Amino acid sequence: MMKRQNNQSMKENNHINQEMGKLTEVQDEKNLFDEVALSATTKKQVGREKSKKLITEIERLKSENVLLQDKYLRLAAEFENYKKWLSKEIDNRVRYSVESLVLDILPVLDDLDRSLSLVLVTDENKTFVEGVQLIRSNLIQRLAKQGLEEIDSLGKEFDVEEHEAVMIVDDNNYPANVVAQEHQKGYKLKGKVIRHAKVAVTK
Predict the structure, then answer these.
(1) Same domain, yes or no: 119 and 180
(2) Cβ within 8 Å of residue 102, ≥6 positions away
(3) Same domain for 179 and 103?
(4) What is the reported pTM?
């Protein structure tokens, strides 16, 4: 009788142990599933965070690119303006240097003109006078290469842009307000008047 009860008890214990084993396996599977689910959720969260960071970085780079492009365009414009300014400045300096040199030479040219207008040509000095005329002609040609030109005044209507009236005269050969006499030649350099012609104008 006792032996039968022991066998029955052992069977029940074995059954309980088997059930407990199954329950443990189920719990282990559940834990594994939970871990997998948690891992997947974590990965999704990490993925979302990375995506947000990536989007934020892209937007930052876009903004930085716009700023850099604007800076580049402004620098390019400034550099272009600087080149124009520099070119103009060099041109002005060269023009001023040439103008200053020509203005220094004009009195010498005036002296040659006065000398030629006063000299009485004879057989004895004819060669000398022709030599002076040739020097004047060569000087004028070289100055013309730099843009110098004489202002044509005689018989022209008085123009304040080109002429300086030093006297008013009566001259029936000319109508009123016309240059009848030229006391000093006027000159232009590359189209700019650098010395007004001193003239006498009719009433």
Answers:
(1) no
(2) 143, 146, 148, 187, 189, 194
(3) no
(4) 0.57
Residues 129 and 187 both lie in one domain: no
Q: Which of 98, 128, 146 is the C-terminal boundary of a domain? A: 146
- Spatial distance between the Cα atoms of 105 and 99, rounded to a whole number of angstroms: 10
Least confident of 45-49, 76-80, 150-154: 45-49
User: Which residue type is seen at 6?
Assistant: N
Residue 173 structural domain: 149-203
Backbone phi, then psi, for 148, in 5-degree steps?
Answer: -80, 140
Q: What's the gap between Cα 150 and its chain centre?
A: 37
Can you spell out the DSSP letters for the chain?
-HHHHHHHHHHHHHHHHHHHHHHHHHHHHHHHHHHHHHHHHHHHHHHHHHHHHHHHHHHHHHHHHHHHHHHHHHHHHHHHHHHHHHHHHHHHHHHHHHHHHHHHHHHHHHHHHHHHHH----TTTHHHHHHHHHHHHHHHHHHHHTTEEE---TTSBP-TTTEEEEEEE--TTS-TTBEEEEEE--EEETTEEEEPEEEEEE-
Q: Which two tokens stand for residue 155?
A: 């018989």
Question: What's the structural domain count of the chain?
Answer: 2
Task: Please determine, for residue 37, whether its predicted confidence score (pLDDT) is greater than 50.
Answer: yes
